[in-house]
């Protein structure tokens, strides 16, 4: 980690959670001169070993947030061997070739939607954080947030507490900060089961080449099927293939609060026994012991706001709008959040440079209100569209069924609504919203 340069006049920001959302938010704020401290419940930097892809909008947000973030991603991203995302019938045996009939494809562009391992990306981001920026073994218990005057106070399980001007919840799908912002009894305070789960694994490419075509080992594929689908794409510079095998589950999730349960390859094989030869081979390439990952999201009870009533705590990424992964856009959307919030807080710091405590609180409320306004509609849509897309890939949308033309039309329109998002325009709107809310807040205070 680098050396931290403190700015005594900076707005102090406490970030809860050191995942991709927390790390990118911290880097964006630090590059804009704010004072940042990250509080992580784990003993160190940790991320699951599954793969992740970054869509074009996410890469543009990285560049705008802090170019070092984008450079870190590109260092570990596995270049695509072709510029198309291939969608195939993974359910029926085509009777020729490798057994999978092509359905449609989408153009990704040069170096578009590349993948890496989550743990590798988080490690690269952590190297960019200043020494002492992150504090570990800090499990958040409570946030005390007065409606006026005092700074919010974070209280931890080890009995310690800290104050900051702003608290940012980057603590993921089971967010403690979310429950504080929305209220413990609010149904939107906790995510809901989507009735899908996934088996996840990484397959060495050398092993896969003994049983799959070279194309299936090096290209991003979505294998569609009835009530299930499988995503495969290369990571670790082509040394590994990331496999995510989704299954529809119409019952209740048996794990309770646990997001993952132990599973076996035999269980996965039973779930995909009716699929075609390629999917069955992919499943057979997985390790004997697997994890079964419950897909939860916030679709059933979306948050009406991402900002606390006191106006000094807000939510980012999965803590705000946990999405199913079918757009591959959850992390990218969190980076968009980070950019909008960094923009708003940079404006707030400039406005509060010579202000007393009361005025500083006003500008912070205006900044978080601007962030909330610019992100709610976009992120609510993403959660809805991701849920829909998962059903589309499993032939559960009556209007589309198995028709490849109709499926392509829906998938392409929705994917491009994610990929083509104008982050520069988002930044401009955030600045205008902040200025308008600050002016309105000052007028109300005078009146």
TrEMBL record:
<dbReference type="GO" id="GO:0071949">
    <property type="term" value="F:FAD binding"/>
</dbReference>
<keyword id="KW-0812">Transmembrane</keyword>
<feature type="transmembrane region" description="Helical">
    <location>
        <begin position="6"/>
        <end position="30"/>
    </location>
</feature>
<protein>
    <submittedName>
        <fullName>Monooxygenase</fullName>
    </submittedName>
</protein>
<dbReference type="Pfam" id="PF01494">
    <property type="entry name" value="FAD_binding_3"/>
</dbReference>
<keyword id="KW-1133">Transmembrane helix</keyword>
<dbReference type="InterPro" id="IPR002938">
    <property type="entry name" value="FAD-bd"/>
</dbReference>
<dbReference type="InterPro" id="IPR051104">
    <property type="entry name" value="FAD_monoxygenase"/>
</dbReference>
<dbReference type="GO" id="GO:0004497">
    <property type="term" value="F:monooxygenase activity"/>
</dbReference>
<keyword id="KW-0285">Flavoprotein</keyword>
<keyword id="KW-0274">FAD</keyword>
<keyword id="KW-0560">Oxidoreductase</keyword>
<feature type="domain" description="FAD-binding">
    <location>
        <begin position="135"/>
        <end position="350"/>
    </location>
</feature>
<keyword id="KW-0503">Monooxygenase</keyword>
<dbReference type="GO" id="GO:0044550">
    <property type="term" value="P:secondary metabolite biosynthetic process"/>
</dbReference>
<dbReference type="InterPro" id="IPR036188">
    <property type="entry name" value="FAD/NAD-bd_sf"/>
</dbReference>
<comment type="similarity">
    <text>Belongs to the paxM FAD-dependent monooxygenase family.</text>
</comment>
<keyword id="KW-0472">Membrane</keyword>
